[in-house]
């Protein structure tokens, strides 16, 4: 009986009564990983299948495929998701744990941003404007402010103001050196080097 019940709900993914704005957001979120994988060659038919909607639905909220690609680029550059994740980190955790969570969230954000910009960067090469008021400079400012909030409980133990430490930490994440023979540092390793420096504990 359970099997027949399961078989009766195949269309649950289709959200009825979605507003155009909600549908637009859902399509963008579905399209981003596909664009990262296939680049600008991804078809609207493929995006529609992944979203569980008809292809015509895409063109009810986007004028054409180019507008959809630009919206995905703008969303990937937006700090909204990263800032929400940083704001959700539990401030009662020890500082290294807070920063490791922050590093993980921001590495995912930078990776997504890089994948989309790399896939669509040849389409004019310019920043696609703002998303919910967040241009490139403002994105960095908002992420740094969220990082500074994470550092605030340990303000007395920091060598510099939280805002400066946040800027340094963000810069380290953004410029982490990558070589073919050396894997990236894990968030925990990166935080350890950031907080305690390059010297091992035994160095005099």
Structure description:
- The protein is an all-alpha fold and 204 residues long.
- It contains 10 helices and no strands.
- It has helices at 2-7, 20-38, 44-51, 55-61, 65-77, 80-87, 95-120, 136-151, 162-174, 187-196.
- The relative contact order is 0.10.
Any chance you could write out the topology, listing elements then pairs?
Layout: H1 2-7, H2 20-38, H3 44-51, H4 55-61, H5 65-77, H6 80-87, H7 95-120, H8 136-151, H9 162-174, H10 187-196
Helix pairs in contact: 2-3, 2-5, 2-7, 5-7, 6-7, 6-8, 7-10, 8-9
Compact overview of the structure:
With 204 residues, the chain is mainly alpha-helical. The chain has helices at residues 2-7, 20-38, 44-51, 55-61, 65-77, 80-87, 95-120, 136-151, 162-174, 187-196.
**Subunit organisation of the chains:** single chain
Q: Tell me the number of strands.
A: 0
Strand content: under 5%
What structural class should be given to the helix and strand makeup?
A: mainly alpha
Shape: elongated
Main sheet record: none
Q: Would you tell me the overall average pLDDT? A: 83
Give the helices and strands as they follow along the chain: HHHHHHHHHH
N-to-C CA distance:
71 Å
């Amino acid at each position: 009986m359970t099997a027949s019940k399961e078989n009766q709900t195949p269309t649950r993914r289709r959200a009825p009564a979605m507003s155009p704005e909600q549908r637009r957001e859902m399509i963008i979120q579905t399209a981003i990983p596909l664009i990262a994988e296939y680049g600008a060659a991804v078809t609207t038919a493929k995006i529609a299948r992944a979203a569980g909607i008809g292809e015509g639905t895409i063109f009810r909220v986007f004028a054409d495929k180019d507008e959809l690609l630009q919206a995905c680029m703008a969303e990937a550059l937006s700090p909204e998701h990263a800032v929400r994740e940083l704001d959700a980190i539990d401030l009662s955790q020890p500082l290294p744990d807070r920063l490791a969570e922050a590093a993980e969230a921001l590495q995912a954000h930078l990776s997504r941003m890089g994948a989309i910009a790399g896939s669509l960067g040849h389409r004019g090469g310019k920043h696609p404007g703002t998303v919910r008021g967040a241009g490139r400079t403002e994105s960095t400012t908002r992420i740094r402010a969220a990082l500074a909030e994470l550092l605030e409980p340990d303000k007395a133990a920091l060598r510099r103001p939280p805002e400066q430490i946040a800027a340094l930490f963000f810069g380290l994440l953004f410029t982490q050196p990558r070589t073919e023979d050396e894997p990236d540092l894990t968030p925990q390793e990166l935080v350890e080097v950031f907080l305690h420096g390059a010297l091992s504990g035994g160095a005099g």
